[in-house]
Every structure is written in C-alpha cells, then in structure tokens.
Amino acid sequence: MNGENFSLSEKVVSASYIRQGSQARRSHEQLIRRLLEQGKCPEEGWSESTIELFLSELAVMDSNNFLGNCGVGEREGRVASSLVARRHYRLIHGIGRSGDIAAIQPKAAGSSLLNKLTNSVVLDVLKLSGVRSVASCFVVPMATGMSLTLCFLTLRHRRPKARYIVWPRIDQKSCFKAMITAGFEPVVIQNLLEGDELRTDLGAVEQKIQELGPENILCVHSTTSCFAPRVPDRLEELATMCAKYDVPHIVNNAYGVQASKCMHLIQQGARVGRIDAFVQSLDKNFMVPVGGAIIAGFDETFIQEISRMYPGRASASPSLDVLITLLALGASGYKKLLSERKDMYSLLAQELKALASSHGERLLHTPHNPVSLAMSLDALQARGNTALTQLGSMLFTRQVSGARVVPLGAEQTVSGHLFRGFMSHSDSYPCPYLNAASAIGITREDVALSIKRLDKCLRSLKKGGDGGPPPRGSHSRRTTARTEIKSPPST
Predict the structure, then answer these.
(1) What is the CATH number of domain 334-463?
(2) N- to C-terminal Cα distance for the chain?
(3) Beta-strand (E) ranges in 56-96?
(4) Which residues carry a binding-site annotation?
(5) Residue list for the binding site for substrate
C-alpha cells in the first residue's frame, strides 16, 4: 500500500498498529530501493516475503495483469492454467523483443525490469567470483552448448572467411556439437600428458594457426572446467597467442564460476591477451534448474552484438530463477557456498586418496584441476572392461550419481568425428580411472556415503560379487548440488 492507503487504514484500525505495519512495509521497500539504485547482489540474503513482494510488484507492471486490459493481439500473456501462472509469478511475457533479447518490451515493464536487474546482479556476482574486469553479461535461456553456438554465429559476421575453430580436446559432446551446429569445422588439438595431467599443447595450437592462416580461423575455443585428469587450458598463454595473431578467443567456463582458480585464469587471460567471451551454466554454478547460461565478456559492444543475434523473444524462467536464488543467498551466502565447496574438495581428495590406497590404487595427481578428481582403476582393468562397466552400473544402482568410470580404448563418433579413448580426453591415457567432483552444494554426507558405497562395490568386485542390493529408499535430506548421471560408454 502507498502512504495514502495507510492513512485511510488508520480510520479502520488503530493508528499505532497501522504505523507499525507501515514501518514493516518500509523495511521491505528499502531493500528493493537499494537493489534498484545499485544493481548489485545484496550482501545479505532477502527473506522469501521480500522476494515475493518484489516479484508481485514487477508482475502488476505487465499488461497481462492490468485490471482493465483488453488484448486483441496474438501474444497477450494469456495462461490457461492458474498453476502455471503462479509458477511463473504471473510474469508471462518473457524477455526481449523479436530483434533483441535485451530490448525493453512495451507490454511488459515489469519483466523488462526483471531482465535488466538479473543481468546487473549476475555481472556483480561474476566480479566478486574473481573476474573483476568483466564489462558486460546477459542471461540467455539456453544451456552452455547452444550459448557457445550463439557466440560462434555472432563471430561469423565479423570473420566471414573463417571455416575453422581450433579446439584443445575436451571429451564433452555439447561443446563439440556447438561448433558443428554453428557450421564450422573443429580442429582438434590433442593434449599433452604431463605427469598424470592432460594439459594444453600450446605448440600444436600455434602451429595450427600458422598452418591454416589466422584469417581462416573463427576462434580458439578453450575450456576451464573439465573432468580430471584433464585440467583447465593454459588460458594466459592462449589469450596472448590469440592477441598476437588477431584470432578471437571463446572460453567454455561451464562450471567455472564456483572455482576461483578458473575465474582467475579468465581474469589473467583478459589482462595479458585476448578473451572475447566466456560462457557459464546457471544450473552448475547457482543450483537452479537446467536451461540457462551466462554469456559474458570484456567488450560491452561485442556482448551486445551476441544478445542481438538471439532470434525472437525468450523465456524469462532462467532469469527469474537465478535472480530469486541470488536475492535469497545474498553475496555473503554465495561466497559461503564457494568456501564450503573448497573445503569439501579437500575432504573428497583426502577420502578418495585413502580409499584408493586401501585397494592398491592411487589418486591421480591433478593439482591444476580445482573441482574434479580421478582415482586409478588398474586392478579392475586387469580383469577387462567388463569389470569396469560393472563398477559404473553398481554405483548408479546404489544412487552414487555423477561418478564416471572411464575404461581404456573406448571409441565414439560424435557428429562424424571419431574420438579414440573417448571420455579420457586422450587417444591413449595410461590407465583407467573413476571421476568424482566437488561441485557447489556438495555436503559431507555426500562425500561420506559415496566413499562408503564405492568401497563396498570395489570389495565386492574383488570377491567376484555384485555388491549386494542397492540401499533402500532415497536420501531424506534435500538435494542441493546438481549431479549428472552418466552411463558407462559403449566399447
């Protein structure tokens, strides 16, 4: 209610009570005013009542919620199900216009304000996560792969002669298919084995740029977040190389926002060389449903160019989800989650190392990977790939999600390209292994239960059994971290 309505209310209820209610309302409004003034993630998280009040006030600014609205167009924000309307807080019009995902909608001032504030808050979070000099970003309602495709298609207009994308190998289908979908030819650069780690072959990248000719290369497509023993690309050196040859540089930072090491690499790469854009997933970094990503960069003009490349309007759901999440957590809450993730990484590494040793295996030494770990499986490999496949199946049926068992010699064709040693990021990695990751939201219970069940499965396989029946029921605790279930590859 506004001041006039509060005054009128004093005729109905005691003035002292109304003033108390007005002061309570004002405390909510002060938080909202600060958000509008600063466009930054609040330091302390908001209560659900403040968030719902804010979203309700945004919604009444959209034409579909006007009391006297009379729509005669083809897109009037009509929703048949009241359940769907409530699910979206009656913010039905989406974001953007047909020519620009960042444009203001005349019919939807509230949704447009939501879009602008979300991008501003997310930009602030990218800065506090380590990329201090990022200039611009926007939330796009597509996952990481399609968002990378959008970046490549935007570069096509700047480099019409380019046919190739130089890509240090990372065995993840969506980032490879992103290049194919955009109509370019990926040039796969094999990684160098340094100890246990697979690292960027800078010499091979530079040789390929010289061989193909810089003008024929759309960009270098590098990666920060990845499964061990692959580690983040040497971004500083790649960025320097891209600046030297005037070749654009797009970074796949899928789940790197949660890892300060990945964000530092991006910041340093932009400082010493060239990074045109970096793309990160919403669900992997902010614990929201799958379906959104952030495209960010250091040149505001180029990021705006990418947003204008998106055809048509877009769903507001990813923007709404991440804004609600960040307002609820606040900057302090998000930083706490990042700190806890680091602690859990150390715990997981310690527990996995002890478990590996007890089974005659070892934790692979991959200090440059801040999220993912790998444990050798040489003993199982001695019994053949069947035992490795069985371990993957046993873990899956025992509700250990996200663990990946990677055998030797797996082959897979992706969009016409044959990958040998698929999932291991190498044609011939020296040993089979199991992956586990410490991602944002992981708990001590996750670590303890996964280690316990992995130990039981390994002991059973040594005895020739199947590990017994899977645990009854499911966890009673809430699930905080997004986990990805991957079946063992066919061989």
Answers:
(1) 3.90.1150.10
(2) 65
(3) none
(4) 75, 97-98, 105, 271, 313, 398, 463
(5) 97-98, 105, 313
